[in-house]
Amino acid sequence: MSRSLSKQGYQFGQLSYETLGACIDVQSQLGVHCTEVDYQRALALAIPKQGLHFQREVEIPITYDGVVVTKRRVDFVVWNDTDELLLETKAKSAILPEDIEQCLLYLHQGGYRLCLLVNFGEKPLGIRRFVHTPEEEE
To answer: What CATH number labels 13-131?
Structure first.
């Protein structure tokens, strides 16, 4: 598979493809009626099968005026040799607006560039992809 570039020139294609491959494999084996933590446990087994690395429950500091006011946890940070992404998982009948806001918060506050929001409760797998392009500093 060729690596596709985003509009800003980021190369997320291969990492996204492999991460989503792990998610599809998990859903095909577990179905759509498990809990979110069940899918997360299965992903912890499926992600390395794709040749990827991951860390679960990564804290993202939420700051106001440069002061950390709280911390939130993203489900997974997944990476290969060249890129990394956030993976937020859900097990609902549909993705809700607050799920999207959660991903955007993680991207902006954590300084990440890509977040995949995957809902195992939908068939086919519910997938939303968010790309954050930080403003260039002057």
So the answer is: 3.40.1350
